[in-house]
Structures are given as structure tokens and as C-alpha cells.
Write a structure and sequence with these properties.
Helix content: 40-55%
Radius of gyration: 29 Å
Distance between the termini: 103 Å
Structural class: alpha+beta
Shape: elongated
Order of helices and strands: HHHHEEHEEHHEEHEEHHHHHHHHHEHE
Strand order of the largest sheet: 1-2-4-3-7-8-6-5
Number of strands: 10
Largest sheet: 8 strands, antiparallel
Strand content: 15-25%
Amino acid sequence: MELKQSVRALCKSAPRELLDDFIASIGDDYFTAFSAGEISEHVRMIATLGQEHPVRVQVSNSEGNDFRIVIVGYDYLSQFSMICGLLSAFGFDIRTGDIYSYSKRTAASRIVDVFNVTLISGEDFDRARQREFEQELELLIRLLSEDAIQEARTRLYRFLAERIERMNEPLTGLLSLVKFTFDNNASPDSTVMVLESEDTFAFLYAVANALSMRGVDIRQVKIRGALGKTRDEFVISNSWGGKVKAGAEQERLKKSVAMIKQFTRFITDAPDPAKAMLHFDQFLDRIIEVGEDNIPEKALSFFGEPEGMRRLAQLLGSSDFLWEEFLRSRFTELISIIAEDKVAEPKTAMQRQLKAALNQASTVRKTTLNQFKDRQLFLIDVQHLIGANTTLFDFSGSLTDLAEVVLEEAARICFSSARSGKGSQQRFAIFGLGKFGGREMGYASDLELMFVHDGGDSE
């Protein structure tokens, strides 16, 4: 009570309604974390927020590469993950922090985020860089204010991936194990989740982004890192605004956070980091929808390994068509193919497989041909996208082999049907032209064909 009175005495110039709302809504824990002088400075910064400046930043250089960064602003979903990601993009390792927001999110809600960070070796955070940080943060917050969350994420993914590659800062620490502890008794309407792990670069961003992607609302965070370890306490609620219930809901959240955190390690390997993260979010949704019991255990285990995540990042960040097509219709087949390292068959094997499939299909052989073609085409595409030693010549050759195999069987079926009941047999040949004839087929290639047959009679 005395602290709040001291704050009021120091904030006489602040609008009375704003100060009353702040003191009543920010939560008692906030007042144990900061002095009256620090709180009055937060209030002063909040009083300057407006449409032109939805967020304010204060930077102080305590010693060497150590900085204290205070951020206040309006309260939006996914905001904390954006701030953590941007700090990582500018080369900051978050050591400790205290993150607060109003108990209920409304149009009047505000946030106070205080970070103690260390700049990694080789990076700089002079006045120009500080201004760049503030401008980029304002842009992201404006996107959130317009409910353009995915657009904000896309911008941050690409910005972060580009900066990390330039900094040459490895993200291998994101593969470290995380210990989860949940407490549903500490708060009347929220869940307290404690994470313990190795203190590695971009860890907090990976976790915060994972929670945000799964619809979890982060209301408060205490970040405590020391001696290479971190213990982070999150006050969260689920997408419906309630507690994260013990049992299946908490287990799903643990698996999702762990997998997204590990997947983030490989976003710099993806051709398009934003596309890879978006598709991976859908990948997790599909796993939940299909049910883990319906997915081979070997495949699930594989995606918990670094090589599994690397392949997924490469694939999911490469092709919208492949992902959307197989997400809808062949999801379990997709993950089995990736996990079991299946590759496109050689031509002789494809011939045997197609003949066997057609022999088993008593009718509708056209459907069998199309199904075989689609599956083999997917295998060829996957091998090209994630195969370390697959060249463009290998890819073109495999596409041409597949076209020849399917065309050969289609011609045999048609010719057999055309001469049914006739005593004579005309000779014929099919010539491949263009890229098909030159064995230079690609993704957009069609088949240019020329049919030649005996002249004979008018039939």
C-alpha cells in the first residue's frame, strides 16, 4: 500500500484515470518486482502511447554488452513472442526479465516488459540500431493491432532467419530437453507453467512463439537464467480463456511446445522460413486430428530427432502444392514416406509395381494409373527437395522414367482394347518430343507426343 501511495506521489502529472486503471489492473506481483521510481517511469512511458506510437522502448547500457530494455505498449495477442523474436534478431541473449500485463485484455490494457539482455559477440546496438529496433517493433505491433497476426509472424520469421544467418549464431541449443511443470491452483483463472532447460540463444522466442502458435495467451512471465540454465515461469490461459487442464490438454501443449521449439532450430535451413513455420503449425493440427494412435510409432519417433525436423523444414518450406495436397488426402502416408526415407523407384521397379497394380485392378484401370502416377510423382518431388545428393539431372530423369512407364502401360491398355475382336495387329510407335524427348522434364512439364502407325487399310 505504501509503495502504491509513493507511486501516486511521483506520478502527479499523469492522467488520473490512466494511473488508477494501471494500479488496479496490473496485478500485485508487479509491485513487488519494481521500485516506486521504476514504476513511475513506466507510467510516464505509458502516458505517451498513442496511435502514432503504440509501443515505447527505453534502453540503458548497464555495463559492456549488458543492456536493460524496457518496453511498454498496448496489449495484443502474440505480442510477447514478437518482442522476444526481435530481441534475438538483434543479437540479444535474454538473461532475466519480468513481463506483466493487465489481468484482463481490453482496449485499455497495457503491458510492461523489462528485459536484462546480453549482446552476443560481434554485434552492436548503437543509436542507429536502437532506432531500427524501435521502428521494426512498431511495425510488428501495428500489424497485431490490425489482427494481421500471420503477416506479422511471416515478417518476423524472415527477418529473424536472415539475421541469424548473418550472425552465424547456431541454434543447436534449441534441441535441448525441457522440463514442464503445471500448477492450476496458483491462480483463479490461469495456469502457471514453469519451464526448465539449458539457457540457449533464442530459447525464449522459440517457446513463446510455440505457445502463441497453439493459441495460448501469455499474461505474465518471470525469466530467470543463471549458470547456463534457465527457469521461466509463464502465467497462461488456453484459447478459450480458461486454464490448461491437467491430462490430455497439458500433454498436447507439452508436445507441441517441444516440437515447435526443436523445429525452430531448422528454420534457417528452410527455403522459406515463414512458409515452413505456417505449414508446421498445420502439421501439428493434423497430427491431433488424425490421432497419434493412427500414425506409425516409428514415424512419430523420427520427427522427434534432428534429422526428422531437418527434412520437415526443407519440405514444408519448399512447396505449397505438395503440402496442401497430401495434408488433405494422404497425411499418414506423407509422414511415413519422410520418416522411412523412401525414395523414387528406378524405372524397372516402377514397371513391375504398375503391372502388378493393374493386374489386381479388374476395372477402372485409369484410376489405378493416376494413383500410381501421383504417388511416384510425390516420391520424386520429396527426394528432390530433401535429398542431399539429388541433382536436377536426377530429378528430370526420374520424371521422364515415370512418364515412360505410365505411358507404356496406358498405350498397352488402349491398344489391347482397340484391337479386341480383330484378327490383324498394326504396328505403332509413340515418340516423345520437347523436354520429354530430351529427358529434361520439370515441375511444369507436359508430355508432347507423336503417334506413328502402319498405313494399311482405312481402319
